Amino acid sequence: MLGGRLLDDGWAVRGTSRRDEGLAAIRDAGIEAAIADPLWPGTVLGLVADVTLVLWLLGSTGPGREELHGERLERLLERLVDTPVRGFLYEAAGSAGVDALAAGRRAVEVAAARWRIPAEVVVADPSDPPSWATEMEAACRRLVS
Questions:
Q1: How far apart are CA 77 and CA 6, in angstroms?
Q2: Taking the CB of residue 99, how many other CB atoms lie within 10 A of it?
Q3: Which of 31, 37, 68, 101 is buried most deeply by CB count within 10 Å?
Q4: What is the structure's pLDDT at 62?
Q5: Please, are residues 37 and 19 in contact by the beta-carbon 8 Å criterion?
Q6: Which residues contact 74 (CB under 8 A, 6 or more apart)?
């Protein structure tokens, strides 16, 4: 999720989808919708001009998408250094696989140390939506405080 609509507590949210069909669900949730494909970091970077936090909520991408937690994520993190983004949140739980999520976590930790990118790694279980949402919100608040 990236910058966008102002929520009740002052947060702005933009959600992304790889396909036009996914935009309707984002809009139905009252969130600004945009097309971006995390397999192509440039499509994400084109949306960060007015963004404070990037949330990489791809922990449940499933098998076959390991590159979203490895090389593609690393390229995105390298390029975020030259943007106004002030923090990065990585979802390190879900069905993507233990090895992929561990690689993503390492990539985020290395980038945070190397380029001083404020980062949070959240391991809340996405199959428990209330707890997951609470953890995600808390992590976002820590990043902007």
A1: 25
A2: 11
A3: 101
A4: 63
A5: no
A6: 107, 111
